[in-house]
Amino acid sequence: MNTSGIDHIELYVGDARQAAFYLCTAFGFKVCGQGGPETGLEDQRSLLLRQGDIQVVLTTGLVPGHPATEYVRRHGDGVAVIGIGVDDVGAAYRGLTERGAESVSPPREYATEGPGGQDQRVIVAEVSGFSDVTHRLVERHGSRRAFLPGAIEVTDPEPDTDDKVLRAIDHIAICVPAGGLTPTARYYVDVFGFTQIFEEYVEVGGQGMDSKVVQSSSGQVTFTLIEPDPQRRPGQIDNFLTWHAGAGVQHVAFGTDDIVKAVGTLGDKGVRFLGTPSTYYDTLEERVGHLDAPLDELRELGVLVDRDHWGQLLQIFTESMHVRRTLFLEIIERRGALTFGSGNIKALYEAKRGELSGTTAG
């Protein structure tokens, strides 16, 4: 199966307009399309948001039996559909279902005549992913700005994006219950043809977690899979699984070309990031070597830095925007690095422990 990347993500939310207002006001997204009863989507209201190459659909169910209504009731707002671009939906759908994926909906074509008589065709199908999250296979022809012609209509194909700081979806992090990591990774390897490119066990502060990273052959679709170690003290992953009521997308990482600019811009718009203790930066250069960005700026903004064999990675995490404290976002800039910043977990823990020890001693 040839994949071109993550075409879009769809969040099921309690109020699509409210969620859109936050993402547009704080993160600089633009509402570019909408769908609902007037476009044949009788039981839902959907809004299409864009920034850079990122497409986010926000869907609210209008009736009790709609999948979005049921999803929100169980999990709260969250990522329910991950759209994957493919060059042939029919072939991809057949291959996936033959290898063990469950069919959610067979191929369907959305088409209309675009500007200048150019046909706009989008073919989609859906198959099972993990837990309640499905994968939508997307094949596009014609204008790249069309989304689902006749269902979710684009109202602003080229929005004003002068203030955009986010470029693309770098990866998606998924939490699964203890014991679910290996079978989930195997599913993506055996069924989707992904490759496992990384695995690691991290233990810190009495907590432990296992992780595996699977990636499409194109390198454009990357899932970081995480499970808690039940033999260790319960922590963040356990909290997510409890509050989300099962496996789900813990965070979406948005790539940027300039994280210092991005964090400054988003902070000015009201985005709240997780705090980083000042002591983290006292040994940062000793840990990762020469920094590709000024230390004072990194310290002021709270940006984390890690290094692997290929280069440096700069990242920062937002606070969760949801009442259940589940889904959050990551802003990431890769300066050659191919891994995911796991070195920062231990470094942050040591910095926080050092700050607490210093406070107690004082």
CATH architecture of the largest domain: Roll
Q: What is the name of the CATH topology of the largest domain?
A: 2,3-Dihydroxybiphenyl 1,2-Dioxygenase, domain 1
Q: What ranges have pLDDT less than 50 throughout 5 or more consecutive residues?
A: 355-362
Distance between the termini: 60 Å
Structure characteristics:
362 residues; alpha+beta; 2,3-Dihydroxybiphenyl 1,2-Dioxygenase, domain 1; 9-stranded mixed β-sheet; 8-stranded mixed β-sheet; 9 helices; 17 strands; disordered C terminus
Report on this structure.
The chain has 362 residues and is of the alpha+beta class. It has two domains: 3-154, 2,3-Dihydroxybiphenyl 1,2-Dioxygenase, domain 1 (Roll), CATH 3.10.180; 168-361, 2,3-Dihydroxybiphenyl 1,2-Dioxygenase, domain 1 (Roll), CATH 3.10.180.10. Helices cover 25% and strands 37% of the residues. The protein is built from nine helices and 17 strands. The protein has helices at 16-27, 67-75, 89-98, 181-190, 236-244, 259-268, 284-288, 295-301, 343-361, and strands at 3-12, 30-35, 44-51, 54-61, 78-86, 103-113, 119-130, 133-141, 153-154, 168-175, 195-204, 207-215, 222-228, 248-255, 304-307, 312-317, 328-335. A nine-stranded mixed beta sheet has the order 6-7-8-5-1-4-3-2-9. It has an eight-stranded mixed beta sheet with strand order 11-12-13-10-14-17-16-15, with helices on both faces. β2 (30-35) and β3 (44-51) form a beta hairpin. The radius of gyration is 21 Å and the shape is globular. The N and C termini lie far apart (60 Å). The model is unreliable at 355-362 (pLDDT under 50).
